[in-house]
Amino acid sequence: MIFSRRDFFCQGLCLASLAVAGRPGKGRAAALWPGDKIPLREALNWESLPGQRVQCKLCPKECKVDDLERGYCGVRENMGGKYYTHVYAAPCAVHTDPIEKKPLFHFLPGTNAFSIATAGCNMDCAFCQNWEISQTRPEQVQAFYMPPNEVAALARRAKAASIAYTYSEPVVFQEYVYDSAVAGRQLGVHSVMVSNGYILEKPLRDLCGVLDAIKIDLKSFREKYYKEVCAAELKPVLESLEIIRSTGLWLEIVYLMVPTLNDSAGEIEDLCAWVVDKLGPEVPVHFTRFHPMYRLNHLPQTPVSLLERALKIARGHGMKYVYLGNVTGHESESTRCPGCNEIVVRRAGYTILENKIKQGKCFSCGHTIAGVWS
Amino acid sequence: MRRRNFVKSGLLLFAPAATVRTGKAATAGKSGSSRVLLARDSSYTKIGAAPDEKAAGEMLGRLIRELTGALDLAGGWRKILGSCRTVGLKPNCLAGAGVSSSPAFVHALCRQLIDSLPSLNKIIIWERSDSDLRRAGFEIVTSGKVLCFGNDRSGFTRDLVLENSIGSLFSRTVAETCDALINLPVFKDHGIVGVSVGLKNYYGAVNNPNKYHLNRGDPYVADLNAIKLIRDKNVLTLCEGCTAQYEGGPPFKPQGSWPAGLLLASTDPVALDRVAWRMIEQKRKEKGLPTLAEVGREPSYILTAGDSAHKLGLADLTRIEEVRLG
Question: What region holds the DUF362 domain (chain B) (predicted)?
């Protein structure tokens, strides 16, 4: 399927709006799908079990899936003893965003990321902003046929420096991420993934081989929270963070502070101590503000004072790059040089007002600023 | 507003609810107990075979008369469905022909409903998807008095239903179109939740059933059935057990099935599931298989559905009266 640029952006805008306001419903999908069918593709990372069962080896849930059933993510299905993905080349949200929106503050600031998502997620976070696509099945959302080479070509045409796999959970469309990243690389387009990090080691290492940066949403530093609020586990996410860091891939962390649930000083202390010890003080951490959403409509927004407390704790642990998110205009949106404390990247929301990093170093004192700057 | 006007408008507001009142109470068992009725077709001997429509209709008729105590079939259906205008029938078609609800039985049921209830406007046979229905041998029908289609055709509600462990969009057929629901499960082993009978069959009513298989479906199955849309509308469970499956489900595995030739009926969805679970355990024992608890698949969600928090029915076998019709 070939679209003119105008057609594509028209469609893209419609699709992107789904990430916020889209509703399941088949009628709209039919117009976009050739033959009204989502093409199937055999999934990667699974094993056969007796009796035509399969075991998924993509994420730590390791679902054992009977014939004609799907895994927890809702996008991978056992058909006659073979495991297939329903979301290969089937994004339901497409948009071009500033890379700062991911947020990745230390990766090519001021550039755009051609951002795509499919339906499905391997968690069920009670605060999910994009639950209408992440917590639904592929056939229930309007999808778009976009094979990897087209993703790469469109990203390039949109003058995006990178392709971002984002909005829902790229782990569940790992096959599509991998092939799109390879196609992007051939055209000189980077790839970044915005993920929950709930993935087994092998597929994670495979992805690290073709990606350029990863942002992980670390939901909490307590197993109880992961279990009760996200239907997942903390330990595998921490392991993923260490694996990513060990590969040398650029890594940033977001911690969404949900009032009363994961905002205690003790938990933030533990988190910061772990990050500094296991990942190093140069990994940027973004403490972001929660807005009432999905199943947590009854909670208030995170008070800025709580975010500022986290900022103070993190700096007290020696973390060099700590940001507050969803608090537009806060001084902590900007990057300061750890050597001389000068602002080296000045931001307002997703906008770069000033970038004074010269060849990866502070313009003032020459201190190396960790990140990918060109 | 004057008192007279208020009372008048109040009556008007309550009128629609009264018109769709169904007859759950009329079919309950003795005080403090629940009844599960079982009819058996002894001529059914071939695993996976479709039942005979006439025989299925006769079994169903006997069950309905016994369940309601009505003198005739029409009276029995009136007791169950009251003045319902649109009834939804939820078969289980996941496994395709073999251990799915059979078109023959569902046709027999539709025929009885049409013959018995002239005021019934529509019967909707609904499932997760058109393809599920086709796989089990149903034909998609989108006009007329008896309709048959999947949620992929009707769509889902716009608003998220949030209650206990559930956060889902509901099938519009369930939420907006039907006044009452009749659950038409099969009974079979399930590789994750232990058994799949009536309570779990309503996973087909939501957009995200894949999210509710953790912890053997407990408490998700109970929480889903406790949501008003299901709890209030579900009036009857008719479980087809011509071929039942004790191992290898939910897909059809002839080697794990037996030709039970059964049809079960109850207005207590928990009691029916509990009896089906007992029968599956009994068959597993006969075949030398460990209990579901021993293989880590005890369907504890059935017990949860019967607990004091959910109150969906009785899970205590000592309080369930099994009535076997000859």
Answer: 87-277
